[in-house]
Design brief:
The chain is an alpha/beta fold and 257 residues long. Helix content is 44%, strand content 21%. The longest helix has 22 residues.
């Protein structure tokens, strides 16, 4: 089965394709205080909710990049419905291959819940930091361990202990790269329950309305496995947060003595 079809089906009820709330995304947008016309890029932009909100709030110019044709199509439709004359563009491509026309030219760069694009949290921070100008924002959405994961859980979901860090380690990874932590927006159990539960709901709804689709049994099997892992281990083990860092403003050159 096409993996992007699977995500399109299971995220059919989601506006935000991550375990966070509308209120937390609104809080993030409000904190950014971007100047009108600022340039923003969102890697793995999903259905475009973040960039659309930035366009609504600040009138930014933006580029959303996602490899899923389903999500890109949805993002374009949402943009047209809400901010039809904005300077935001959604592009279907692998975010790992994105090269800005001019390094350090964005006021804002983000990647929420898709650090696999750049090989992990550290690689994502490195990539996004290279996109933004001095003083610009680097925002990453990343899981973290709430507690030591059970080996059975790691085996069930195909993860290693080293796949993620702790909340403190996620923050330290940015600071070690010279980024300045401005804020964190940490998801709670309700956020996770909504994110996971809407997938179960969407998969069941799709199966009942598309009984002849040959992919339905595989979708159901995958969702059942993910649901078991979440309820037995993941709900108490894995956290998620949006980390809002800023690129330092370059200090002026000190005159020679």
């Amino acid at each position: 089965m096409d993996i992007w079809k699977f995500y399109a089906v299971t995220h059919g009820e989601h506006a935000i394709c991550n375990p966070t709330s509308r209120e937390k995304l609104e809080r993030l947008v409000a904190l950014l205080r971007l100047p009108a016309g600022s340039a923003a890029v969102d890697i793995a932009s999903g259905k475009g909710e973040l960039l659309i909100r930035l366009a609504e709030t600040y009138g930014i110019s933006g580029l959303g990049i996602d490899i899923s044709p389903y999500f890109v199509r949805d993002a374009r439709a949402r943009l047209e419905a809400r901010v039809p004359r904005s300077a935001v563009v959604f592009r279907e491509m692998d975010g790992a291959t994105f090269v800005p026309d001019e390094p350090g030219s964005f006021a804002f760069a983000s990647c929420l819940g898709a650090s696999w694009v750049f090989g992990g949290h550290g690689g994502t921070l490195d990539a996004l930091a290279g996109f933004v100008a001095p003083g610009g924002w680097v925002v990453v959405g990343e899981p973290f361990w709430l507690r030591e994961p059970a080996q059975e859980y790691l085996g069930e979901v195909g993860l290693a202990r080293t796949s993620f860090g702790t909340h403190a380690e996620n923050v330290a990874a940015g600071e070690q790269r010279g980024l300045e932590l401005a804020y964190t927006l940490v998801s709670n159990t309700d956020d996770w329950d909504q994110y996971e539960g809407l997938q179960w709901y969407a998969a069941l709804t799709y199966a009942r309305s598309h009984p002849a689709d040959p992919d339905v049994p595989e979708i159901a099997q995958r969702i059942a496995k993910e649901r078991r892992a979440y309820l037995q281990w993941g709900r108490e083990t894995l956290g998620w947060a949006m980390y809002a860092f800023r690129q330092p403003i370059s200090a002026p050159d000190t005159p020679a003595a």
